[in-house]
Amino acid sequence: MGSKTAALRSQVESLLAGRVSNPFEFGHHRIVETVSSGVVEIDDLTGGLTRGALTEIFGVPGAGQRSLLIASLAARTMASETCAVVDALDTFDPHTAAAAGVNLKNVLWVRCRNMDHALRATDLLIHSGGFGLIALDLSDFSPRMVRHIPLPVWFRLRRAVENTATILMAIEQEANAKTCASLVLRLYCRQIQWSQAAGDGERLRPPSWGLLFDGWQRGAEVVRSRVKAADVTDSQRRVRQSTRIA
After folding, report:
1. Which helix (H) or strand (E) holds 214?
2. Contacts 24+ apart (CB under 8 A), 156-161
3. pLDDT tier at 201 (50, 70, 90 boundaries)?
């Protein structure tokens, strides 16, 4: 590299300092950092949550999206990180979160009234910096409404969180961020479990008169992942992990 080229490169890097990280290193593999989601089965399946990227978690109501969110909040706040929950329809339950181990002193709860406010708040929080996890909860909106979010909005959120230490988590009933999400995780209900009166351990398949609800099994599936964790093999990513919720 000639002296003039080196001087020009140094000048460009100086002008872009603080706004673009390593502007001449786009072709190189970027080292990513992953942290625990708070659920062992999810970590085994995905390798954890990726910093500086968008993670999209979707599934039908009751599939466990909020349980995973609370587990992630507990893991991050226990590590003394500050988190934010953008609650699009004001349905977040702080009492349940506290009972699950979330340190509410390290959580900023943004209570919104509509989807537009939630998206604007998320963008503002990302640019403000300092958050270990920002969760955008859109799971109470119908899939039809969330589909109306323009793709450039997801692209802007992805670009905003890049080169930061923040985990951006979007929770929905359907996947909508397309390729803007580095990890897309689908949660689903596998099997409802019924039992007879207390003391009878027999499991009965079809629900009938006199049976008691005894929990259900939930499953998780990686739909798309652009991150290759060193300790997670391709075969592990294809395995459907499930856990019983009593």
Report:
1. strand 212-225
2. 156/123, 157/54, 157/119, 157/122, 157/123, 157/126, 158/53, 158/54, 160/123, 160/126, 160/127, 161/52, 161/53, 161/54, 161/126, 161/134
3. very low
* Stretch 44-48: mean pLDDT: 92
Count of domains forming the chain: 1
Task: Decide: helix, strand or coil at residue 62.
Answer: coil
Whether residue 77 lies inside any domain: the answer is yes
Average pLDDT of the residues in 66-86? 96
Best CA proximity match to 140, nearest among 185, 98, 90, 188: 90
Cβ 213 vs Cβ 192: under 8 Å: yes
The 3-state DSSP class for residue 81 equals coil
b/e code 180-190 from CB counts within 10 Å (16+ = b):
bbbbbbbbbbe
CATH code assigned at 154: 3.40.50.300
pLDDT of 119 over the 60 cut: yes
Would the pTM count as exceeding 0.85?
no
Write out pLDDT tens, residues 128-138.
Answer: 999 999 999 99
**Residue 16 is assigned to a structural domain of this protein:** no
